[in-house]
Amino acid sequence: xxxxxxxxxxxxxxxxxxxxxxxxxxxxxxxxxxxxxxxxxxxxxxxxxxxxxxxxxxxxxxxxxxxxxxxxxxxxxxxxxxxxxxxxxxxxxxxxxxxxxx
Length: 102
Prior knowledge:
The chain is of the alpha+beta class. It has helices at residues 2-6, 24-33, 75-79; strands spanning 12-15, 39-43, 49-54, 87-89. It has one domain (2-94): Spore Coat Polysaccharide Biosynthesis Protein SpsA, Chain A (Alpha-Beta Complex).
């Protein structure tokens, strides 16, 4: 994710491909947040997140996502301190990790 974000020329967001409730308004909200904050994240109810974005991807911190416990209830908490601060939080959306999540 760090490499993908860092390769973008301007404000960028990455989203999960497993977010059934996502709308254009959610994406617009993320880009609006990047107008006043260096990073944005969309939390998920399971402790992870469905979106992460940077206002200035060329300035991606080298330690971004370092020591993050992936697919864990603390994934969001582990990620937040690795992002450029302050981080904008947008709407919480559920992702589909298991069949029961559908």
